[in-house]
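Batch 3, record 17
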Amino acid sequence: MRDWIFKIHIYAGLLCSPYLLIFGLSSLHFNHKFTTPAEDTVSWTHPLQLDSSIEKRQLGLAVRDSLGLMGWGPWWEVRQSDEETRVQVVRPGKRYDVRMPVGEGIAYVEETRLGYWAVVNSLHATMRLPNAPFMSLWGVYTEITTWVVLFSAASGIYLWTARRSERRIGWILMASGSGTSLLLIIYITVWG
Amino acid sequence: MYEVIRKVHLYTAMILLTFVLMYFISGYVLIHRDLMPEGETDKETVRLPLSTTHVASPNDLSGYLQETLEIHGKPAPPRQLKDGRVRFDYFRPGDYSRVTVSAEGDSVVHLRELYGARQTLIGMHRMHNYGGNILYQLWVLLYDLASLSLILFGLTGVYMWYKITQDVWSDGLCLQSAMGMQQPPSFSWCTQSNP
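Prediction for the assembled complex:
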């Protein structure tokens, strides 16, 4: 039994180790902002006729689909005036600012490439990306990794209990490190 | 070397176990929003006459407001609004306060929101950036250490797997060639109890 648990611990961990690296790096980046996003822009145009019956909240999504882009088209970035309509489509590492002058039938797209760190950050627990079927696999990977981490914690403790020579130091570290962390979490949440 | 790496892997896990688990559990709640009910948010807005003109700097004012209005949480950097008001935000998991000081410095508007269990967990996940009192600094330090530990678990895990398989395969091949056995190599040597 212990042998099997060890095998699952090590192979499941191996499967998820790339995710852990990305997760660790992106978590650190959230806290320290190693770099500011790059702002390399490329401009292009594309013929586009929008159905006038589309609701304002759906415009970003409609433009995204018409231009064959992947990502989200947030409704709060839609701007409409008598002269033009502006929407934004965002995806990990890229932002598309789309301007559509009324009556021209052309979308003027400014594509901003935000750089490598923006992609790493976006991979932090992204479950899916609209119009990107393969990104659903990343969601599956996220799901698997979460369960593997929970399993690894439990199985790690189980495997440790077999090592009599490390019981004392293990208890000391768990009580001082994890015990203190638990108290800190409770204290901050209740009285902080 | 293997033994040192194994100990680093194990001991780091034992020290940071709670924080790593907290981040994965709260992250899971964050990405599966239907897992827990939204819960009710108690909102309360109060307008108070409060003179703040005697407090010189925005950071001092932040502390003064926190003390006077008995606000909990980690203060965020003050924000000057275009109309002259100054906004102060305070946050801890499950509890958010926003205090807006009038441009004249004679009154404040205090908005307080108390969240349910789900938002409290999500709040734990989102408490980044150094600032606030020593306990909040410690929280963010542990957050950093938990992040580093994920990188460490990944790298040390791969190292240990590499060493184990290298040894096991070489042992297994030696055994097979020496004894003509066709058994697959076993991991049992690395999991057996030591005295």
